Amino acid sequence: MKYKKMATLLTLLILTMCLYNSSLICKAIEPNGVEIKPILSDLPIIKNSKYFDLKVEPNVHYKIRLSVKNNTNKSVSIKSIVKNAETNDNGNIVYNNLSKKNNLITSKLIGKNLRHYKLNPNQIKIISYDFYTGKKMIRGSELGAVITTFSSSTNQNGIINKISYINGISLTGKYIKPNVKNIAIKSWNYTNQNQSYYIVLKNTTPTIFKNLNIEIRNNKFSKHFNNVSISPNSQFKLKIPSNYRDIELNKTAVKINGFNVNNKYVDHEQKKISFRIITFSIVVGLLITLTIRRKIK
Questions:
Q1: What residue intervals traverse the membrane (predicted)?
Q2: How far is residue 92's CA from residue 94's CA, in Å, rounded to a whole number?
Q3: Please, what are the averages of pLDDT over each run of 10 residues along the chain (297 residues)?
Q4: Top-level CATH class of 180-266?
Q5: May I ask the CATH architecture of the domain 32-172?
Q6: C-alpha 32: how far from its chain's center?
Q7: For residue 216, what are the CA distances in angstroms to 209, 234, 248?
Q8: What's the pTM?
């Protein structure tokens, strides 16, 4: 009987601790009372899209607006920034790139990118970004996002609670239909340190690919990657653990949605070097031919 009472007390103690810990966890991860909504009205939103998925024209300004509201009884700090999309090594689209290259969405941004605001309790703020498409039609899509981070002090110890929201932006000019034939193998390497193959795949077009199924198979191993997404004009690598380091690419089947991409192996740097060598050889050959003809005359 004594042991039964002790067991009951121990069970109650454990349950109490679990409930206490779960309340702490919930408190730590619950939303901090802020709202953010994309304002899609008056924009050429592509049908059925619920984010800034715009069908754009050349030489036009498009204003992206977000409504943010502080529902708490404390002031919160806001940081917003636009970043380009890229593909991480797991085949997921992420937003970490701040480059301003011509084919990236930040190159269309007018004005300051990084913004800081302070929002009082129950205050509403409209954050807007101006994008100018330029004189030429955008070929395909340029993909990015507005990342909005809210910060507030949660208690007297000064612990900062942060929560971020990602609102996607896509500027599509001339539509290009996704075609897995435009995905190429850029490189194929084995590392002894990780005992793995790394295959680098490159999306050679300004097109977004979603939910791809990739199969890599030979007589030594088989590896599947599901629900892979690739941002426009980006590359990423897939890791394939293997103890067999002497496997050649031409003996391995690499299929994307059933299409064999082995014959799409490219190394752009090598191609550039080869092109320069051929061009140089032709120019030298022409110069030698002209010199010989002049001497004959």
A1: 273-292
A2: 6
A3: 46 38 30 82 92 95 95 90 92 90 91 94 95 94 94 66 90 93 88 87 92 89 91 91 79 87 54 61 75 69
A4: mainly beta
A5: Sandwich (2.60)
A6: 26
A7: 18, 20, 12
A8: 0.73
Sheet with 61-70: list strands edge to edge: 34-39, 61-70, 124-132, 109-110
Cβ count near 220 (within 10 Å): 12
Q: Residue ranges per domain, the chain?
A: 32-172, 180-266
Cβ proximity of 169 and 62 under 8 Å: no
